[in-house]
Structure formats: C-alpha cells, structure tokens
Amino acid sequence: MSSPILEVTCLTKAYADRPILRGVSFKLAAGERAALLGPSGSGKTTLLNCIGGVDRADTGVVSIADEKLHALDADGLARVRRTHIGTVFQFFHLLPTLTAAENVELPLQLLGITAAEREKRVRALLERVGVSHRASALPSELSGGEMQRVAIARAIIHRPALLLADEPTGNLDSHTGEQVLDLLAEVVQESQAALLMVTHSDEAAKRCQRILRMKDGELTEA
Ligand SMILES: Nc1ncnc2c1ncn2[C@@H]1O[C@H](COP(=O)(O)OP(=O)(O)OP(=O)(O)O)[C@@H](O)[C@H]1O
C-alpha cells in the first residue's frame, strides 16, 4: 500500500501548561475526506494549525507526503506548506487588493510557475468552481459563496496533496454552504487530495467518509 498523505503520531500540545492535544494519532490517505468534530475549545483548530505548520506541536510527529514537519526549519516548513498544503478558512482570507484571479494565481507565483502556465490554470480552475465571470472582481465585490469558491480555487490551484478546511461554511447561509460543500467534495475527489475539515455542521460531516472527534484533547474515530 502507498504511504499515507498525512500521518499524525502521538501529537501533544499545551498552552501555558494546559494540555490541549494529548497524544493524537491518525492517518489520511489520498482521496480520503475526514470531518473533524468536537466541542468548542476541544483543540480542533490547534490540531489543524499543528498539521498545517502554522503552529508547532510540543511532541509527536506530523508527516505530510513523507516530510516530517518537526525536522524542518522555517524555510523547509514554508516549502512544504507551499507545495503540499492548501487551506480554506471560515472567513475566506482573500487578499483584498487583488482580484479573484490574482488571489488564485498567488500560490503558483510562489512556486515560480511561468506566467503562461499560471494564466491557463487559473482560467480553467475559475471556470471549474463556477466564478470565471467574476475573475476581475475584488473580494469586496463578491458574495460570500463566490468568495469561498475563489478561496477553494486558491487552495487547490497548486494541486496540494493535503487540503485543510476550518469551518469552510461557518460564514455562509445554509443553501450556499451546501453548494460550497458539494464543490469542495468534488474537487477533492477529482484531485485525489486528502481533506481534513473542521466543522460543526452535520451537512459537512455527511460529505466525508471518515468522522474524527476531538474530546478532552484526544481523538477518536466514529
Ligand atoms: N495561542 C493560544 N494561547 C493560549 N491558549 C490557546 C491558544 N490557542 C488556543 N488556545 C486555547 O486552546 C483551547 C483549544 O482551542 P482551539 O481553538 O483549538 O479549539 P476548537 O476546538 O477549534 O474550538 P472552536 O470550535 O470554538 O473553534 C481553547 O481553550 C483555547 O482557548
């Protein structure tokens, strides 16, 4: 069997001596979609941040596409994040002074992809996520659903192995949220990325094959 895209082993993290993650272990394979559920304050975002290289775990191992995060310096971590990880946030986090197309293009610029190739891929992906007619719009001119479609395109444009989503529908009405969830599931399926999605939404969890639950710093699988 091929090695997992994401392997988390015995991860621990404390804030001011208060344990938040108490030995979290799980694996995700290519094409797998996992919902991460749990009460507020149970450590879901902390876990996502340690996996995404935004925060460092105290002990334990996060391995993404066979790269062990704790062994990397800041440059190495930035490289792994640019290459292997895409992230979708609740509040979209689009850069306000860039157009939709420029936001989506950004990860490819960071990877040094040529302008011609960037333009081709951005155009095709905006088409795929249903916002090609809004390519020249600034984020402030987009609806919430359009912003999240653009953000999803930005998260997958560089074909990452791992997609992290933190409450991707938390700021959308339920109908728009369901459309965005369908899109997210489809693009993950098409790209065979692994998806780890923090959510409080049953609708979001339904679209995942695996349900992981955080409780008191420990992870269990339903
Ligand atoms: N930088 C930090 N410094 C200190 N404590 C923190 C920090 N970040 C998070 N915490 C605490 O760690 C605990 C877990 O937070 P986390 O955001 O991971 O929970 P969560 O499960 O994602 O919650 P929610 O569902 O409300 O977003 C909380 O009690 C939070 O206050």
UniProtKB/TrEMBL annotation:
The keyword Transport applies. GO terms for cellular component: membrane protein complex; plasma membrane. One of its GO terms (molecular function) is transmembrane transporter activity. Residues 6-222 form the ABC transporter domain. Coiled coil: none annotated. Keywords: ATP-binding, Nucleotide-binding, Transport. It comes from the Bacteria. Pfam families: ABC_tran. Belongs to the ABC transporter superfamily. Macrolide exporter (TC 3.A.1.122) family. This is ABC transporter ATP-binding protein. It comes from Brevifollis gellanilyticus. The lineage of its organism: Bacteria, Pseudomonadati, Verrucomicrobiota, Verrucomicrobiia, Verrucomicrobiales.
